[in-house]
Amino acid sequence: MRLKSILVSTTALLCLAGAAHAQQADPARLNEYTRVLASDEFEGRGVATPGEQKTVDYVVSRFQALGLEPGGPDGQWVQVARLSRTQQSGPATITATVNGQVRTLERGPQVLVASDRPVDRITLTDVPVVFAGYGVDAAEKGWDDFKDVDVRGKIILVIVNDPDFGAPEGHPVAGRFDGNAMTFYGRWTYKFQEAARQGAAGVLVIHDTPGAGYGWSVLEGSSTAPDFDIVRTNWEAERVPAQGWIQGDVAAALIGDAGLDYAVLREQARTPEFRPVELPGVTMSMNFGQTHANIESRNILARIPGSEHPEETVLYGAHWDAYGRATPQNGDDIYNGAVDNATGVAALIELAHLFKEGTPPERSVVFAAWTAEEAGLLGAEYYAANPVWPLETTVANINMDSFLPGTEISPEIVVIGAGKSETDRWVERRATEQGRRLIPDPAPQAGGFYRSDHFPLARMGVPALFAAAGFTGHNAPSRDYVQNRYHKPSDEWTPDWVMDAAAVDVNLLYAVGRDLADSREWPRWNAGAEFEAAREVSADRRR
Length: 543
Prior knowledge:
20 strands, disordered N terminus
């Protein structure tokens, strides 16, 4: 579908909708915001680096210039998020001993280990190793990979993704979770948390590209960047000493040397009867240093108060952080994060521009640029735990994470988490008027719904819309980006960039947000969605 036809149809749509919907995103402005945020001057927008200050200053200056109000606590432009930062320091020694024979595992190519605990050194010596299936304990699914097996003080190996990922049709486990659509149980973040709840000394997620949704190089490239977490009151209960990833073939070899067959164990792990298997004669040792500090980072918040219902909020969000300076690739150590997610922040600023150009929205609209998404959605998690604007009166959260440059406008709108909430119909109506249709996530195995900043708020019940994402491989430019630039220094802005197609997507999200802001409706989670109960609690409070 040609750009001109899309723009014409969108213009007609917005004009018919009235003056409040007549605004149009400017591709040149979007491109300029992206260029600035993705420039080397911002040093990859690393959390708690000079790049953070430059990012905050720039985004706040744009909101101020547009005449928005500060949206943070006590009339501030920012919400301070208190985080813990750890980072590799010096070499790491990682060994596996099998029946007395010591094998050294190389940090980087074979295994990646780190720790969120605020300590100078992690030392594990001759720790037993247990294969724990998918590392899932989900009572509502009738699934417990741990049973009554005690894994306290041991290192557990767990498979990435869910037990039913890739299961053939007719297999007993097929559809037990969400099929090939990764649930939260399939995410590494969940597996790390569950390992801590089980009292393990360490956890290594067994990597394979289909199951993870990305190659090993994506993990290795960002592994030297700092790790962040929310400051916790009981680190021993909430985080294991050592956590990370192990290459699939390395794990298979280790299990094979113990006299077991990894393929057989994987198949056994797909049954609810599975019990953890300790690898006979196998122990692992780890010794690595790190630096640690409590730091403060910032969520940027701006607001347009509602003319009729200012206590009700439509929330737009996009994360401002990338990876800062990390492992060099081809001599470049700046992870500029142009697509992911300078484009999302550019869209956030442009949306603020569109709302200020139009008539005041009836409900308030808040524009949030989150910190520390790449470290585990921490800025949004901090806000969800410490909301500035009450979550029970937050109508919906529209999330923006990655727009691709170019002029090619896909006739399809990718909806991450399609079918979970009524926000689908809000975007479907406007997409249809653009001559486009909605499709579900074409890469559900990547668990995109659980990997972006709407998720911490969704867990608290706020309906989420995550549409028009650029990293899902739904067309050739998207596939090229995922394979060659995602989370790499090559995710850079170049002078040949144009943001014509992204502007059309911003127009769509503006129309949806404007509809929500001028409505008296409250979108709900669909029946059976995992967040439905939390929203019902919010609805009771609202009433």
